[in-house]
Amino acid sequence: MGSATVIENFYGVYLLYCENPKYVGRTYIGYTVNPNRRIQQHNKGVSSGGAYRTSNKGPWEMCLIVHGFPNDISGLRFEWAWQHPEKSRRLRKLVERKKSKESGFQYKMRVLSHMLRVGPWNRLALTIQWLVPKYRVEFEVSLQPPPHMPIEEGRVISKKVSSPSKEQTQLSSSTSFPRCDLCHQTIENGEVLNCLNTDCTLKAHILCLSSHFLITEPDHILPLEGSCPNCLSELLWADLIRKLKGCYQNENLSLDDTILT
């Protein structure tokens, strides 16, 4: 029992560690939108949706998950590159092959360290989440993740975003929309970016504020940071997106959610 982080629009790439004495130390990398369901599938086997490589070799622990990908395609590409660094054009010249004295787990973590520091992944609002504290290792000083990527510890629960009801849609349509402080047009999709400074009244479209931040980085598509056009506070783009999602909540776990202990 305890608390867990509830996240909407969850896209994550995880690392499994085998606890079976016969296969202890083996690892597996996968992608999921529901980590709690996925670890159950791995431990139940292929017949329950698990992978062939993990079937009948458990128990497995989902020790680490990287989440915050904008969509499933982004997450699946990250999964493939982590699984096949020697084939990835971004990693094959950057990451040395597995060393003789290096465990599979250590090698996977070394690859991950490099991945988080190269494009396009180094500009995403990713979170490195240690689900089982006993497996946690620190990143090498020279291979630390970018400052905007937090390293968290604890369980996560994915939450489906329910479609608005007819009544909610009607209420929304009858409500006046805020105006963007940058383009002065209405923000009709509900995705209003606000400054992290509680005294600031900034309201902006995602694209408008992104373009404002990218004035100093014209060669990039996604900003990393910038100054609020209203109060001039220095802001990290990842923090603004996390606030927009409003998806981080602490909830008490039910018995069904204790599978990652």
| Low-pLDDT sequence parts | 247-261
Mean pLDDT equals: 83
Strand-residue proportion: 15-25%
Count the DSSP helices: 6
How many domains make up the coordinates?
Answer: 2
Q: Mind describing the biggest β-sheet? A: 5 strands, mixed
**Global structural class:** alpha+beta
- Measured distance between first and last alpha carbons: 9 Å
Counted beta strands: 10
Domain GIY-YIG: 9-95
InterPro entries: GIY-YIG_endonuc, GIY-YIG_endonuc_sf, Slx1, SLX1_C, SLX1_endonuclease, Znf_FYVE_PHD, Znf_RING/FYVE/PHD
Family: Belongs to the SLX1 family.
GO molecular function: 5'-flap endonuclease activity; crossover junction DNA endonuclease activity; zinc ion binding
Helix-strand layout with pairing:
Blueprint: E1 3-8, E2 12-18, E3 27-32, H1 35-44, E4 60-67, H2 72-83, H3 104-115, E5 127-130, E6 151-153, E7 155-159, H4 166-173, H5 206-213, E8 225-227, E9 234-236, H6 237-245, E10 249-252
Parallel strand pairs: 1-7, 5-6
Antiparallel strand pairs: 1-10, 2-3, 2-4, 4-5, 8-9
Helix pairs in contact: 2-3
Please name the defining characteristics of this protein.
nuclease; endonuclease; 261 residues; three-stranded mixed β-sheet; single chain; metal-binding; 19% strand; Herpes Virus-1; five-stranded mixed β-sheet; alpha+beta; globular; 2 domains; 6 helices; disordered C terminus
Task: Give an account of the 3D structure.
By secondary structure, this protein is an alpha+beta fold. The protein has two domains: 3-159, no CATH class; 166-245, Herpes Virus-1. 23% of the residues lie in helices and 19% in strands. It contains six helices and ten strands. It has helices at residues 35-44, 72-83, 104-115, 166-173, 206-213, 237-245; strands at residues 3-8, 12-18, 27-32, 60-67, 127-130, 151-153, 155-159, 225-227, 234-236, 249-252. A five-stranded mixed beta sheet has the order 3-2-4-5-6, with helices on both faces. A hairpin with a 6-residue loop joins strand 8 and strand 9 (234-236). Helix 2 crosses helix 3. The longest helix is centred in the first third of the chain and has 12 residues, at 72-83. The protein is globular and about 65 Å long.
